[in-house]
Amino acid sequence: MNTLLDLSELNQRLGQLFMTGMPGTSLDEGTELLIREYNLGGIILFSRNIDDPMQLARLCHDIQNTAARYQCDPLFIAIDQEGGRVARLRKPFTVFPGNEAIGMDERPVRKAVEFGTVTAREMKMVGLNMNLAPVVDVRKGRPERHLRGRLFSKDHKTVALLGGKVVKTLQENGIMAVAKHFPGLGRASTDPHLSLPVIETDIREINEVNIPPFKAVIDMGVSAVMTSHALYIALDPKNPATLSPFILNGLLRERLGFHGLIMTDDLEMGAIVKGYGVPEGALASFQAGSDILLICKGQKNFPESLALIREKILRNELSNERLSQSLQRIKKVKSKFIKPKQKIMFRKVERYFMSRA
């Protein structure tokens, strides 16, 4: 591959591996460039990107229209909508109290289904197509601060049941679900946003407590599993899960039989940046088995990360077959959940949310 055309085609293929954030509430030139020049795979939205339902619907419309205009693939448009304190959609969207409250409800299964049904309906209405939820970590002791309120239960069977219900309901209603954080952050004593947690859970607990909820959501057909930026001494004493071939390919793919998308948590978190850097972390995670590389804020990290992976492919240090495997998985999930001719009905959005104001 040494022609400009070949390099352009390779950039367009590699762009599908990445999901990035964007700065504001409307489609800016920098984000449009990433879609046009690199065929960006997806965008993750945060509170900084959302004013109200109509603005959000216009933004999602503009993102997908831009991709169509440049004959690019449709994008994943994702948010974290777990409920509770991790909810990017606020009133007049329906606000749920979060996983812990669902787990403690008198009728938790009914509450999980209600959460999935209403959340999917409102997300789909405004053009979102992926929810980075549910958290299926099992609570062990007092949760680390960033996980408080986000865990269904200390009982792995309850987590498996409720996590599975949320996944099934979201996806039956047209929204991709992403289960997190594999292989379980319930014992974390450090916030991976800041530094790398070291989890000394033994193999027995991993197999009997951590893994069953993930197996349950895999059996439900979950679209994606998000990796944990944590070091699991019993599984791989050298590499965080996000960068571990043994955990991603050996455990998640081969042992648990997961054929969907493996997505990293944000590669700009301290757990990755301090030890590896974003481009090096993206490369290592892709080599380990990840399909979607998440960069939530610094868009400059996207072309730098892509260039590093591209260099490895051009030097035949990474195979085109490995790239094709991820692209096939991405295409399969997008074909199932993102319909190119599906239009956002702005009048319906206005009527629905005005009635809730």
Features:
single chain; 357 residues; alpha/beta; TIM Barrel; eight-stranded parallel β-sheet; two-stranded antiparallel sheet; 46% helix; 11% strand; globular
If you had to describe this structure to a student in words, what would you say it looks like?
The protein is of the alpha/beta class. It has one domain: TIM Barrel (Alpha-Beta Barrel). Helix content is 46%, strand content 11%. Strand 4 and strand 5 form a beta hairpin. Helix 6 packs parallel to helix 7 and helix 10 crosses helix 11. The protein starts with a helix and ends with a helix.
Second CATH tier, the architecture: Alpha-Beta Barrel
Domain count: the total is 1
The CATH superfamily title: Glycoside hydrolase, family 3, N-terminal domain
Shape: globular
Query: Which stretches are low in confidence, meaning pLDDT under 50 for 5 or more residues running?
Result: 1-5
Strand arrangement in the largest pleated sheet: 11-9-7-6-3-2-1-12
Oligomer: single chain
Tally of contiguous helical segments:
13
The percent range for strand residues is 5-15%
Q: Give a short account of the largest sheet.
A: 8 strands, parallel
> How many whole angstroms does the radius of gyration measure?
19 Å
How far apart lie the N and C ends? 56 Å
Q: What's the helical proportion of residues?
A: 40-55%
